Amino acid sequence: MAKQRVKQKVKEQVKELGKKRVRIVGAGLAGLTLGRTLLQRGVPAVLYDRRPEARRHGYAVTLHEPAYRPLLDLLGLDLETFRHRVAVDARHGHRGTGRIDPALLVRRAPGVDYATSFRANRHNLVKLLAEDLDIRHGDEVESVSPGTAPGLVALHMEGAAAPNLVGLNSYYKMMRIPYQVPPPFSLQTDCLVGADGALSAVRRALAPDTPVGILPYVVYSGWRRLTQKQFNDHCAPAMQGSTVIETRTGGGEAGGAVLSVTVNDAHTGALDVGWAYSRPVRGGAADPLHMPNREVDEAKHVPKALYEELGALGELEQPFRYMLDPELTKVDGHALHWLMRTALVDSEDLYALAGTGAFLVGDAAHAQPILGGEGALSAITDAVGLGNCIADHGPSGIPAWYDTRYDEWEAGVRNSVKAIREIHGGR
Ligand SMILES: Cc1cc2nc3c(=O)[nH]c(=O)nc-3n(C[C@H](O)[C@H](O)[C@H](O)COP(=O)(O)OP(=O)(O)OC[C@H]3O[C@@H](n4cnc5c(N)ncnc54)[C@H](O)[C@@H]3O)c2cc1C
């Protein structure tokens, strides 16, 4: 009987709490920027992310000025401090710049002043944005469904970490459930924002008919930790202080292969240096390196054919020769297969979902491919606009905000498809 009462109390608390706060699924660039915008505007929000903690990401994103400018205001930092903290080459006692030399890129994005752009380490950026936010790491949203009343949506969490509610801890104690493996739970809210990225569980649950495209490109990436000496010997002379260098091999109507080497992270006496190899698909489904239907967790299954293909590239210039050496990448690399996904939720679906208290933002609403895309810019711009909209008008103002953004989302997806083609020299 006592157990029942505690259970009931917890249920009511969760429900009540759910009505008052904005619930954000995903603590990536969109979710965190939204969280910070709401924090600045005094609107309570809680974020859920399936990752157990702010895990170190070995990769980097290019930030152009329009993407990072709003973050300076949200973080209360000047550009120099921000850049020095998040740049890929920032480390203890060493200020980073993340410099990009546009002469070393195979394609320059139109209208961009690269003197003000830089490469940010994603982990450093996420860590900075996450400061002061209420984030429940390890909370994976399993599904989303209509709530028990109009305008409410229910969020179902898988293996969720315990929210800090009176009574819940004693419930766990009484039930003898270890804190590390708490049971799944559900809650309801009138403002759920799906910011859970290109493979969004929120989108899959609420707008399941959204077409997800896989562009016809073979893309593999990896990274190795180099000593400062290895970097100086093999990479620095060609990179000339830039944190990225690219080259293209082959060409023609179909487009050539593109190789890139990037500084992704810096440590005392060592650097994490990434490589990427991409090319258009050859021969459609017969291409052994194109696996459009692979499962998400199969990204680490890299076919032997990749190393054979890298070996057949012939004598490359440095740093490509060293970083894409098939033997070295195979032995001590961390290679991954990347799929170039696109998605755009239909505007009618967005309006329909808005009536139930569910909203989508960032890659969850409109995914652009990793290569050629400007997903970071879109995610940050969306999040600042959405946060201010919620603060000014509440969730009921969001459909009008969608109207101001949708054309840009469509254009963003369209332009990213064009950009990845241009990167590979195709027309
Ligand atoms: C390797 C790489 C390099 C990139 N480089 C660039 C670049 O140079 N320039 C650029 O503009 N863009 C780049 N992008 C794309 C850019 O990072 C994304 O467009 C941007 O991060 C989108 O932000 P988002 O918040 O919508 O999604 P994300 O940043 O992907 O965040 C989604 C979050 O949701 C969480 N999540 C997912 N599913 C669940 C669930 N079921 N429950 C709870 N949480 C969940 C994830 O853990 C993640 O933290 C790159 C992407 C990658 C992967």
Small molecules bound in the structure, each named once: flavin-adenine dinucleotide
Gyration radius over CA:
23 Å
Strand arrangement, largest sheet? 5-2-1-9-17
N→C terminal distance: 71 Å
Description of the structure:
The structure is a single chain. The protein is α+β, with helices and mostly antiparallel strands and 427 residues long. 36% of the residues lie in helices and 22% in strands. The protein has 15 helices and 18 strands. It has helices spanning 2-20, 29-40, 65-75, 79-86, 122-130, 168-174, 201-206, 228-234, 236-239, 304-311, 320-323, 326-332, 347-354, 375-393, 398-423, and strands at residues 22-25, 45-49, 60-63, 118-121, 135-137, 140-146, 153-158, 185-189, 192-194, 212-214, 217-227, 244-249, 257-267, 270-280, 336-338, 341-344, 358-360, 366-367. It has a five-stranded parallel beta sheet, sandwiched between helices. It has a five-stranded antiparallel beta sheet with strand order 12-13-14-11-15. Strands 6-7-8 form a three-stranded antiparallel beta sheet. Strand 13 and strand 14 (270-280) form a beta hairpin. Helix 2 (29-40) packs parallel to helix 14 (375-393). The termini are far apart. The structure holds flavin-adenine dinucleotide (FAD). Residues 25-31, 48-51, 59, 61-62, 140-141, 195-197, 201, 362-364, 370, 373-377, 379 line the site of flavin-adenine dinucleotide.
What attributes does this structure have?
FAD-binding domain-containing protein, binds flavin-adenine dinucleotide, monooxygenase activity, five-stranded antiparallel β-sheet, monooxygenase, 15 helices, alpha+beta, 36% helix, FAD/NAD-bd_sf
